[in-house]
Design brief:
Elements lengths: L2 E5 L3 E3 L4 E8 L7 E7 L6 E6 L7 E2 L7 E6 L4 E6 L8 E8 L7 E2 L3 E6 L1
Parallel strand pairs: 2-11
Antiparallel strand pairs: 1-3, 3-8, 4-5, 4-9, 5-6, 7-8, 9-10, 9-11
Length: about 120
């Protein structure tokens, strides 16, 4: 089992930057792919970025590619989402997810609110 806690969300002006953190706990947490998703009011949750358990194979949604960077530090059991050049449309609750190929269960954090003002 993996427990995830996101942090770092806050109100920021357009063009600004934020770094979100996802602290993972559990005996095998470092063996899971960590993905970031976001959900805005009235919209479905959407994929933002992911990073494999070894820290490689980053993937990004087209809407954030070139502005966001995903990483992880397994020594700290923490994944990060560096968000630059933020836009009002990036406003959402950001969630991290832990998943592993072959497992039927995946895990979610409680989310952290990011608000970008114009």
């Amino acid at each position: 089992q993996v427990h995830l806690v996101e942090s770092g969300g806050e109100l920021v002006q357009a063009g600004g930057s934020l770094r979100l953190s996802c602290a993972a706990s559990g005996p095998t947490a470092n063996r899971y792919t960590i993905a970031w998703y976001r959900q805005s009011p009235g919209k479905e949750r959407e994929f933002v970025a992911s990073v494999a358990w070894w820290g490689g194979s980053p993937r990004y949604a087209d809407s954030v590619a070139g502005r966001f960077r995903v990483s992880r530090d397994n020594a700290r059991n923490t994944a990060y989402l560096q968000m630059n050049n933020l836009k009002p449309e990036d406003t959402a609750i950001y969630y991290c997810n832990a998943a592993r190929a072959g497992d039927t269960l995946d895990y979610w954090g409680q989310g952290t609110q990011v608000t970008v003002s114009s």
